[in-house]
Specification:
Layout (H helix, E strand, L loop, with lengths): L16 H15 L11 H8 L3 H13 L3 E2 L7 E2 L24 H20 L4 H16 L4 H16 L5 H11 L3 H7 L5 H17 L3 H24 L2 H5 L19
Antiparallel strand pairs: 1-2
Helix pairs in contact: 1-3, 2-3, 4-7, 4-10, 5-6, 5-9, 6-7, 8-10, 9-10
Length: about 260
C-alpha cells in the first residue's frame, strides 16, 4: 500500500497532489538529476519512487507536457524536452535549485556537516511510524534502481526529504534541501561508478536502522559518514580522479550501540 505524502510546509498544503509531483519533477530537472533527452521512469516506477498513486503521476506528467517540459509519445517513454523550467514559488527548498552551485564544495560540505546533522538529529525525535514505512519503501525502490543512477537519485531525493521534513524547524529543513541539491549533475556521474550505488544504499540502510532506534546521535553520525562519502565522490568527479577515488577504501561507519542500551536511549 502506498503511504500518503508527508506534509512539507504550509504553502504546499494548497497544492493538489499532481501539482506537488509536477514541482518535484521540475526540481529534479532544474538541479540536474534529470537532463534533456532523458527518459522518465514509467508511471508505475515513478509511483513507487515518489510514493503516490499512478493517477497522480499521470496528472503531473500531463501538466509538464502542457508546459512543454516533457514530450509524451505514443508507444514510447516520456522524455525531458527542455531544461529551462519554471520553478514554482511554492517549490521545495529556499532558493532556485542551481543557486547553491555558486558556492565551493568545501563550503557546502562544512554547512552540511554543521546544519544537516542537526536537522536529522531533530527529525529522529519526530519521525512518525508512517515516515519510517516510507523510508523502508524507499529502500525497496532503491534496490530496484540498483543499476540506474538516475532512478536511484530520484529515490535518494525522496529518502532524504522525508527525513529533513520531519524536523520541527521547516526553515532549516528547506535550507538543507538546498544543500542537498549541490552539484547533482556531478552526483549523477558519480553514481554511475562501480559500487557507488551499493555504498550509498548501505548508508541508507544504516540510517534507517538508527532512526528506528530513535537514536539522534547515531543518526547524526551516520549522516556525517554519508555526507563525507558524497563530498569525496563529488570531489573525484570535479577533479576527474574517479578511478583513483573508487579504489580508495571508505572509512567504516561508527559502531551503533545495541537497542536498549544506555547509549541508544
Amino acid at each position: 500500500m502506498i503511504s500518503p505524502l508527508s506534509p512539507l510546509h504550509e504553502t504546499l498544503h494548497k497544492q493538489t497532489a499532481k501539482e506537488m509531483i509536477r514541482d518535484k519533477i521540475v526540481s529534479m530537472i532544474a538541479s540536474g538529476i534529470l537532463q534533456i533527452g532523458d527518459e522518465l521512469p514509467s508511471e508505475r516506477e515513478l509511483s513507487t519512487m515518489l510514493m503516490v498513486s499512478r493517477e497522480t503521476v499521470r496528472g503531473a506528467i500531463q501538466l509538464l507536457a502542457g508546459e512543454g517540459v516533457v514530450q509524451v509519445s505514443q508507444g514510447a517513454r516520456t522524455r525531458v524536452s527542455r531544461v529551462d523550467v519554471n520553478v514554482s514559488t511554492q517549490r521545495i527548498g529556499v532558493t532556485n535549485p542551481t543557486s547553491i552551485n555558486g558556492y565551493s564544495l568545501e563550503a557546502v560540505h562544512a554547512a552540511r556537516l554543521l546544519v544537516e546533522t542537526a536537522v536529522v538529529a531533530d527529525a529522529t525525535r519526530n519521525l512518525s511510524a508512517n515516515d519510517i514505512r516510507r523510508l523502508e519503501d524507499s529502500i525497496a525502490a532503491q534496490e530496484q534502481a540498483f543499476n540506474d543512477p538516475v532512478r536511484f537519485l530520484i529515490c535518494d531525493r525522496e529518502f532524504h526529504l522525508t527525513i529533513y521534513y520531519a524536523s520541527t524547524n521547516k526553515l532549516l529543513a528547506d535550507f538543507v534541501v538546498d544543500l542537498y541539491t549541490y552539484m547533482l549533475d556531478h552526483r549523477r556521474i558519480a553514481m554511475g561508478q562501480p559500487g557507488a550505488i551499493e555504498k550509498s544504499l548501505e548508508d541508507h540502510r544504516f540510517i534507517v536502522r538508527a532512526l528506528k532506534m530513535r537514536n539522534p546521535e547515531a543518526v547524526a553520525a551516520a549522516f556525517s559518514e554519508h555526507i563525507l562519502r558524497i563530498h569525496d565522490t563529488s570531489l573525484a568527479v570535479d577533479e576527474g580522479g574517479l578511478a583513483v577515488r573508487a579504489s580508495s577504501p571508505q572509512a567504516p561507519f561508527p559502531s551503533m550501540p545495541p537497542a536498549g542500551s544506555k547509549e541508544s536511549a
